[in-house]
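Hey team,

Filing this mostly as a record. A colleague (T.K.) asked me to run one chain through the structure pipeline before their review meeting, and I want the input and output archived in the tracker in case anyone asks later how it was produced. No errors, nothing strange. Just documentation.

Input sequence:
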Amino acid sequence: MSLIFKKIKVEFYFTLFFIVSICFVHALSFDKMPTRIHAWAQSDHYALALGFINNGFDFFHPQTYSLNHQFPPEQEVDVPKGITAVDFPLLHYIVGFIMYLTGIKEPWIFRLVSLLFSYVGLLYLFRILYDLKGLWISLFAVSFVMFQPIYCYYQNGFHVSSAAFSTQLIGISLMLKYFYKPSSRTFYVGVLFLTLAALMRFTQVITLIALFCSFVLRFISTRKYNGKMLAVFMGLFLIGGYFVYNKHLASLYGSVFLGSPLPAETFRDFMFQIFYIAKSYLRGFLPFLHLFVFIVVLINVPKEKWNLNSFWLQWLGFSLFGTFVFSLLMSWSLSAHDYYSLDTWMAPLVICLIWALMNIETKGYSMKGISLFVVLFVIGAFSIALENQLRKYDEKIEVRGVDLTIETFKESSNYLNSIIPDESRVIVITGSGWNSPMMGWKRPVFRVAWKFEEQIPTELDKGYDFIVTQNKSIDEEVIKNYPDFYNRVELIGSNGKVSIWHTKL
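Output structure:
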């Protein structure tokens, strides 16, 4: 029997571990539309995937259902198509292509592709660490990442941060392999994945910049040029090129997505946001169990290994510095959007964890003790991740906000289509995000999603064929901000959930 187990490749056991884990932690979410935490942003990403089906898979002109954007172009677009500036939309393109091939546009397709990105990233980390440090260390590292609540929540979600980090994880793992088993091919492929991750989510360029800075520092100290620095520079050049193109796209068509820093306005505001980040991240990003074992691992690294001349530690140092600077520039976003932790602090955390695990002398500990420690951690971390998922997807939670908007427009889609012809110019006036209503009603429309007091009167002057409002929120969002609304429009019909209007002549 033991011989049979030895013949089975370790990848099989990892795959089994991965599948069993996700069957539990994602049981409540696998077939759900964008929902709960940051469903607004997740709806935008789902809409991008569907947009590629609608635009004939024009990769460099991604579009959503929203014909106008939160961040408008420099000049009004003559024929709006919903084109938006966005980071390199590889994930959305793959999802859209699979949906096109299968004819299935259900959300579980997107969630499955996101899980596959996660699987490949974690598999690389597991396999490379397994070759270098054995089963228990590799299992510990994978569980440390996989069962962090924030990573787990977005692991099968629609937001690109998780897929981009999983791509970055491949690059980091390959750098680890190169560091201990030098191979030019391994290095270049690692740089390729780090570059791809930063293209998919520009914030993740910090890791590649830190790697480049490490090479520059090594060149300054040794006066020896390393040709591999050129590969890193080319990766940064490619990212910079797409960044410039993305800004050009934003100037022409606008963007649904934030494309500029949002620092705190005052020092008091900054301190409040830092406190909020620390409070929220200790539960989702680095819960107490993870924090405790992370400290235990660091404490057990021998003092002589804390050598600042180590290339890996220099990479870590530059990563931490870059992440800190970004946190200052984007303090508001980090406090309001937990997925930014996947773009920023997760990479240096993993780089640090890998360094610590590689430098711990396991020979000083019994194998039974190590295996018991890892098993207890895996059980504890899995329990934390599972509890987090059950809490966030609890069916007893009242349906409201973005969830209610998606549900309302999905239930009303047939009614809306029976009255509003396909070629009509339609504006939907309701909050809950720019693409959320169209997750239920798959139609390109104009939107008023915020700044109601300012935008409603402006948009009513543009002569739309139909105006759609959500009954449950019309008083709070529309009438409260623009009391003259009823004097400007005439009711065509309502199904009790949404109302259809047109402007009075």
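Quick notes for T.K.: The CA atoms of residues 284 and 470 lie 33 Å apart. The radius of gyration is 25 Å.
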